[in-house]
Amino acid sequence: MTPARREAPLRRDDVVAAAIALVDAHGLRALSMRRLGEALGVEAMSLYTHVANKDDLLGAMVDAVFAKMSPAPAGTHWRAALTTVATSKRAVLRRHPWALPLLDSRRAPGHATLAHHDALLGCLRGAGFSVPATGHVYALLDSFVYGFALQEASLLLTDPDDSADLAREMLERLPADTYPHLVELVTAQAARSGHSFADEFAVGLELLLDACAGIHVRENGAS
Amino acid sequence: MTPARREAPLRRDDVVAAAIALVDAHGLRALSMRRLGEALGVEAMSLYTHVANKDDLLGAMVDAVFAKMSPAPAGTHWRAALTTVATSKRAVLRRHPWALPLLDSRRAPGHATLAHHDALLGCLRGAGFSVPATGHVYALLDSFVYGFALQEASLLLTDPDDSADLAREMLERLPADTYPHLVELVTAQAARSGHSFADEFAVGLELLLDACAGIHVRENGAS
DNA sequence: TTGACGATCCTTACACCGTAAAGCTACAGT
DNA sequence: ACTGTAGCTTTACGGTGTAAGGATCGTCAA
Fold first, then answer.
1. Sorting pLDDT into bands at 50, 70 and 90, what band is A5?
2. With 0-12 CB in 10 A as exposed, 13-18 as middle and 19+ as buried, what is A11?
């Protein structure tokens, strides 16, 4: 059979975008070269023209996710900048939860990833944080964001928006006498209808930024 | 052929333990039912006597990892208890980095997991934290630990112990004019030979616990 | 105009994966 | 002695990533 001729040849970005769309819709497990090819109207092996192998594809997907995160806005107070970046990062990771497990199997970060990190570091250095302090703040903040996203992803498996329902359902499976404190916490949350685990993010972030402000004052005096 | 008769029948725990050993040694990708069977001197299908399917196995592995973490010690100051738990948790996750990506695809946590969480919550409630504050502290702390472990796992891919070597190697791939701040930070770390990214954990944890102490004082007054 | 070349896509093939289905064997309980 | 069942095996099926080797085109040099 004569090979199908597409109106425009496939680009690497098309492949990556289609893969992200597919995974967003149907989960990481649904991403196979054959299915991805099908979504693009192409045989599986054709994808290898644009992508070295599946791992390369996954790496590109992760980088594309990083590209979606707001970079540190220039010219704003460091605290506002950190808030912006952290919030955006969490939002993006929440929309693409599959990116998190991929994060730790990628050995060569892409340009968007590196640029994102660099911009935030630059923001901190510009704000007067010393190099070691910048390292501390960055490790602290990033850990929090990633870890929060990880927990959120774990919860989001069952419930998309309102954790209250999830909490109620969870209670049915938790023997109250075996895990009294867990039950207490979940009950209290479920009671406050509309409460979302996501709210914890803002609280935690504020606490974290307070801690960073402490470092900043120690190094630069009160502003 | 007559089925091989083992001296003692296989137990679920044996299967899980062997799977963990296999994955510790050769990575998650190396875990296939056939290989695991081989490691146990058994055909792949025999494993299904002890395990519902591969997902069930992975869940059991995660729970076994949780079981290795030190529970919150009773009768100590909450701050010491949190330090113990967080440190232990990180250490365990560092030894079994594959558990992290698995965390967020498991929908039914095992007993060890639930018990671990319950103990820590109990410790906080006992120390005088209100229910909402306990939620905040817990989300904050757990996010940090998971996120830190995630970043560490991502770095550990190439270098096991001393990040200084890793930093030096990384520098060779980073164009200094494209990512100036990234290069600055990595350079500074590489300069301090023997510096390990792992040191950031203690620093971050201290900052975090300070923030928690703030909450505690606000709720209970100075102790 | 011709002819070589490289990019894009296709077909075929292979080893490996998870697991459904069915059968074997040896012990436990009646 | 008969039956059930727990542990293990064999076989088989559809799916996976990807190596190898064409096929068809647009482009550019001769």
1. low
2. exposed
Q: What is the mean pLDDT of chain B?
A: 90
**Chain A to chain B Cβ contacts (< 8 Å):** 192
Taking an 8 Å cut-off on Cβ atoms, the answer to whether B207 and A140 are in contact is yes
Give the distance, in angstroms, between the CA of residue B33 and the centroid of all CA atoms in the same chain: 24
CATH superfamily of A72-161+196-220: Tetracycline Repressor, domain 2 (1.10.357.10)
Taking only Cα atoms into account, the Rg of chain B, rounded to an integer number of angstroms, comes to: 21
Break chain B into its structural domains and give their ranges: 12-51, 70-161+196-220
Cβ atoms of residues A206 and B140 within 8 Å: no
B150 contacts on A by Cβ (under 8 Å) = 100, 103-104, 143, 146-147, 150
Q: Hey, are the CB atoms on A148 and B147 less than 8 Å from each other?
A: yes
Interface contact B146-A142, CB threshold 8 A: no
Tens digits of per-residue pLDDT, A15-72?
999 999 999 999 999 999 999 999 999 999 999 999 999 999 999 999 999 999 999 8
Beta strands in chain B (DSSP E): none
Separation CA A83–CA A78 (nearest Å)? 8
The answer to whether residues A205 and A152 touch, using CB atoms and an 8 Å cutoff, is no
| B121: nearest CB among A106, A182, A189 | A182
CATH T-level topology, domain B12-51: Arc Repressor Mutant, subunit A (1.10.10)
